[in-house]
Amino acid sequence: MTGLLDGVRVIDLSRVLAGPFAAQILAEMGADVIKVEPPEGDSARGIGPFIGGRSTYFSSLNTDKRGVVLDLTTAAGRRGLDALLGSADIVVENYRPDAAAKLAVTPDALLARHPRLVVVTISSFARGTEREREASYDLVAQAESGIMSVTGEPDGAPVRAGVAISDLAAGLWGALGAVAAYSRRLRDGHGGHVEVPLLDAALSLLTYVATGAMATGVGPDPVGSGHQNIVPYRAFATADGWVVIAVLGDKFWPMLCRVLDLDELAARDDLRTNHQRTISRAEVNAAVEEAIGRLTTTEALRRLTAAGIPNAPINSMIEALATPYVKERGLVTEVASPEGTYQVVQGPLRDGRRPRPAPALGEHTAEVMRAVLPADSPDLATLLGS
């Protein structure tokens, strides 16, 4: 699976999270990703924590990219971008419509000049709709999509998911759309435009929850770590910590009862199916909770694993990134930068190379622009400040 996108060049005009994450995925699959920033840089560079002055937030989303500074408010900057786009296959952008029009980087304008280009737009709301000029962020999308209505404890305050799932989903859809449109271009020779609105990406994650709500006319309530339609399927407190148990499928129920010495529950006909257990959710969960509470976390995990019942400890972030599986898969990679070493989590389709550090602002401007502009170009001299 290494080098899936070797030879593909991506221009990343996007900022902060969703767009850079899409381009980061393409970089991990081997694409040559060039991040183009304004002179002041991507605002994500100012988001901490920091290592030697380098933003770990920015670094996590821009590792293995080359960095170029172009001032698109100037004619030389726009011509420089055009020269760069002439060498590219895919461009990722997340400008708001008015800003894109001002800088001549709307999808229509880009495709008019570069018809073979694949343009990926990450937007707040779809262009051409009445809301296209509204701003949005992950929190807004999580709230409006209904995700926050099913997140958190029953009768508690609405809760945002702990990671920016709307932005990350938009990035995943953006990367998928980029590869799909590029595949089509290989067949017919034509570029095209792919748009991923943030709210659309968030809504796409609702899947079975949305379908069930529309079928019944009733939106589900939050159930904490549990599941609206599967029981038992949640976190349970042990004598010294927490574990999760996932009884997805009726075959696991008698196995769980044996492990926890719940023979009376195992013998009851009214609890044999998952649907029956959802009706008796409170009783089932209470019985499992009492039984698990008598065991240490280590003993509970040992018993559950030996029986083949899906389970896990609730790891801290540091614990999760230090497990033997993560190490075996090489999912955490150490990156050396001039400011200091940092670590990044890479996706399952990474190409296997040790990534280069996220670029310093404008680090590769000279290298990249000299490759796409003639040596005697006045624009080259302007862009390089010489």
Please, what is the CATH homologous superfamily of the largest domain? Crotonobetainyl-coa:carnitine coa-transferase, domain 1
The count of helical stretches stands at 18
Described by strand count, sense and barrel closure, the largest sheet is: 6 strands, parallel
Radius of gyration: 25 Å
Distance between the termini: 43 Å
Q: Kindly name the structural category.
A: alpha/beta
CATH topology of the largest domain: Rossmann fold
Detailed description of the structure:
- The chain has 386 residues and is α/β, with parallel strands linked by helices.
- It has two domains: 9-205 and 327-383, Crotonobetainyl-coa:carnitine coa-transferase, domain 1 (Rossmann fold, 3-Layer(aba) Sandwich); 233-313, formyl-coa transferase, domain 3 (2-Layer Sandwich), CATH 3.30.1540.
- It has 18 helices and 13 strands.
- The strands form four sheets. A six-stranded parallel sheet has the order 5-2-1-6-7-8, with helices on both faces. The chain has a three-stranded antiparallel sheet with strand order 9-10-11, covered by helices on one side. The chain has a two-stranded antiparallel ribbon with strand order 3-4.
- Strand 3 (50-51) and strand 4 (54-55) form a beta hairpin.
- Helix 6 crosses helix 8 (198-204).
- The longest helix is centred in the middle third of the chain and has 24 residues, at 165-188.
- The radius of gyration is 25 Å and the shape is elongated.
- The two termini are 43 Å apart.
